[in-house]
Amino acid sequence: MTDRYCVFGHPVGHSRSPRIHAAFAEQFGDDIAYEAIEAPVDGFAEAWRDFLAHGGKGANVTVPFKEDAFRLADVLSPRAQRAGAVNTLVLGKQGDTYGDTTDGVGLVRDLQAHAAPLEGARILVLGAGGAVRGVIEPLLAAQPAVLMIANRTSGKAHQLAADFADLGETTGGGFDEIVGTFDLVVNGTSASLGGDLPPLPDDLFADAALAYDMMYGVEPTVFLRWAAERGARTVDGLGMLIEQAAESYFLWRNRRPETAPIRELLRGEM
Ligand code: ATR
Q1: Mind listing the domains of the chain with CATH numbers?
Q2: Which end of the chain is more exposed for a tag (fewer CB within 10 A), N or C?
Q3: Ligand 1 centre distance from Cα of residue 159 (Å)
Q4: Looking at the whole model, is its pTM more than 0.85?
């Protein structure tokens, strides 16, 4: 029987995950089915159980279900525990549900693919919501000199920095507390969605700095346009999406797809 996988979201119609996973499966000649399922906002657990009852083997989980998936999992990976969110569910051999998060490793792999400054670098992360919480641990594992988290609501950035302080040099604050220049600036706010730009100092970027937006679209985000005008190299979040998908595929099927050709493919289709 064909192994079934899906992405749960609400809404989920625009998701590129089915396209990406179909392309991965093609690389290996794997016979899988991968679909997008819009679960009711208050019915995530039922949707997962129903999927399992119909041959489901694993799922990706996107907005707004990452915390639901975290609560539902019988076993959590250490990185999911730390992130407080799950983006990948795997059906275990005993019928139990394993929860993991591949977002953080996806970001770091894409940063590496773009030769981003990481080890010994000064890194600034904008935002302190769920998306940012999921990437702090792998960013710190890359051993930056310092990682600052800046957020509109400064208290949330302070809290997040404190939560990860045991893993590396981490500070938190409001946008008005940003001091110095940075080699890598990652926008993890949802400000880009509304076309907004966080109030950032004009002299934010060090020489040869990279600006990364976790969002992506046909057009560069406001943040990336702003960064390019100030001399930074810019990269959007399409690669992160593909890398987190590849890591999920590996969790399900123990094979690691090649991501570079998929990046080309999707960019071409956008
Ligand atoms: P996500 O899952 O995408 O992280 P979230 O947990 O709601 O969603 O977090 C959204 C993040 O974007 C927060 O850091 C939020 O700042 P606040 O904590 O102050 O709310 C940030 N954000 C959203 N809109 C923003 C805007 N217009 N300008 C700056 N930051 C914004």
Answers
A1: 3-101 (3.40.50.10860), 104-239 (3.40.50.720)
A2: N
A3: 15
A4: yes
